[in-house]
Write a structure and sequence with these properties.
alpha+beta, 2 domains, two-stranded antiparallel sheet, 6 strands, globular
Length: 422
């Protein structure tokens, strides 16, 4: 809203300073600061309201040290995260951008599903919460919308290299026509870009750093290009569902999911910024995604919201995010990565979420297999998800969280480095 107001003031009245809102870096910084202030300032009031409503965590005794002390700690704190994301985005992002609109949709949609789950658990005193099948249907629904809009919306395109001259003088960015333009390449010559709809995404460790989903339906021959959208949408649904559930499983000890999400958000901000900048895209030889600079504003608010929530969620936690926050955090990360064509980097970037998911799958599968084979179930880990395994080893929560954060930072750095490792 402020972006549109100051843009109008700059164009209509030449108001001094109003032009600052044209810079993505300025708006992202303002979104970050605002989200921090909202999260910290509003958070204490939301926690007090949750306490008055007796919205406390129902804890099952799993034999973990310090676990029962968490009984009654306010949950549904994801409302703090949602407020700290949505308000700065509405204030500082371009609301006419399809990228902004999609991220707002995913945030509200998955936040609402999580809120309904928490509401049933807390107010209806049903510890099972919303049935898993309804959660999955909701995740599939938002994934379907995201994939379909990305495929058919005219404003969602990529600009890829169509020609690279090897000689030429240094030139400023020059508009060529409605679909192509040139930008100076620091390695020598000019890079020519062309806007197009594409099923191409980023893949690490290959020469051109790109993979076309059309290759998955190449066996269809001439029909491949007509039906590749089916594969694309199915992959979007799979990524959104997997990452959303991964974040949900990671939210098991104080500060773990929130801090991990903040680290992932910073890495995504870097990837989004270089992918939305023609010069940097040309230098790194990666896809240039016009219009995606608005995602930088959103992810800045996301990082600020996560850090602000840590103010209250760090050990010992004063509030838990509940599914209201965890489902939204995972869905936001997944949708953001898909929009900047970096979803195939998620296994590395979101490695913490991945191993948490895998630890549960492996534990359940092995238990069922051994029960069928030997008559009694056996376990790989002392307890799943993985962070509970380390708790069973008597490691303090704060140490487990800190070590997971360190691993998350390493994974984020590796993810960014993959842009140049081919």
């Amino acid at each position: 809203m402020l972006y549109h107001l100051f843009t109008w003031l700059d164009q209509a009245h030449d108001l001094p300073g109003a032009g600052l809102f044209q810079f993505v870096s300025f708006r992202a910084a303002m979104a970050l600061v605002t989200s921090l202030l909202i999260g910290i300032g509003v958070g204490k009031h939301i926690i007090r309201w949750l306490q008055l409503k007796q919205v406390g965590e129902i804890v099952r005794n799993l034999g973990l040290e310090g676990q029962m002390q968490k009984q009654g700690t306010p949950t549904m704190g994801g409302l703090i995260i949602l407020a700290a994301i949505l308000v700065p985005t509405l204030l500082f992002a371009d609301l006419t951008s399809i990228y902004t609109q999609l991220m707002l949709l995913v945030t509200v949609w998955l936040g609402a599903i999580g809120f309904l789950d928490d509401y049933i658990k807390v107010f209806k005193r049903n510890k099972e919460g919303l049935a898993g099948k309804f959660k999955v249907v909701g995740q599939i629904g938002v994934g379907l919308i995201l994939g379909a809009v990305m495929w058919w919306h005219p404003d969602i395109t990529i600009k890829d290299h169509v020609d690279r001259t090897t000689t030429g003088e240094t030139v400023a960015m020059t508009s060529v026509d409605g679909t192509t333009f040139e930008v100076f390449n620091p390695d020598g010559g000019n890079v020519v870009w062309e806007a197009k709809k594409s099923s191409t995404t980023t893949i690490p460790f290959v020469k051109h750093n790109a993979f076309d989903y059309a290759a998955l339906v190449g066996w269809m021959g001439d029909w491949a290009l007509d039906y590749v959208w089916v594969v694309f949408i199915l992959i979007v649904i799979l990524v959104v569902t997997a990452v959303s559930n991964g974040a949900n499983l990671t939210d098991g000890i104080d500060g773990l999911a929130t801090g991990t999400s903040a680290i992932i958000g910073i890495a995504l901000a870097v990837l989004a910024y270089v992918g939305s900048n023609a010069i940097m895209s040309g230098y790194l030889n990666i896809m240039f995604i016009p219009g995606s600079q608005e995602l930088v504003v959103f992810i800045a608010a996301f990082v600020g919201a996560c850090v602000a929530f840590l103010w209250y969620n760090a050990f010992p936690a004063q509030v838990f995010m509940g599914d209201t926050g965890s489902l939204a955090l995972g869905g936001i990360i997944a949708a953001f990565a898909i929009l900047i064509r970096k979803e195939l980097l998620i296994p590395v970037l979101c490695g913490i979420f991945l191993v948490e998911n895998l630890s549960v799958v492996m534990q359940v599968a092995y238990f069922r297999h051994t029960r069928k084979k030997y008559g009694e179930g056996r376990r790989i880990f002392r307890m799943a998800p993985l962070h509970h395994h380390y708790q069973k080893m008597d490691l303090p929560e704060s140490k487990i969280t800190a070590r997971f954060w360190i691993v998350g930072i390493l994974l984020a750095v590796i993810t960014i480095v993959t842009l140049k490792v081919r």
